[in-house]
Design brief:
By secondary structure, the chain is mostly helical. The chain has helices at 4-11, 38-53, 56-65. The longest helix has 16 residues, at 38-53. The model has no long low-confidence stretch (mean pLDDT 83).
């Protein structure tokens, strides 16, 4: 779980509190498909590439993980 958006929300109306550190972890996530299901894997790869190409992925990452979050390294 990314804590930066949660901590930013928590301190938003508490002036005596501040976030002192963000980005201290990096999680790698994956999507699992059945062994040999190349059609599903190809569809997922294509959808991810399309989302990255049109900027949707970057917008979602910024919206949900914060401006300091980075695009993932998309490896097949």
């Amino acid at each position: 779980m990314k804590l930066a958006p949660v901590t930013a929300w928590f301190v938003r109306d508490r002036p005596r509190l501040k976030v002192v550190e963000t980005g201290i972890t990096r999680e790698r996530l994956a999507v699992c498909v059945g062994k040999g299901d190349t059609a599903l894997r190809s569809a997922i790869d294509s959808a991810q590439a399309a989302l990255a190409a049109d900027g949707t992925l970057a917008a979602l990452i910024e919206q949900w993980l914060g401006a300091a979050a980075a695009l993932p390294d998309c490896e097949s």
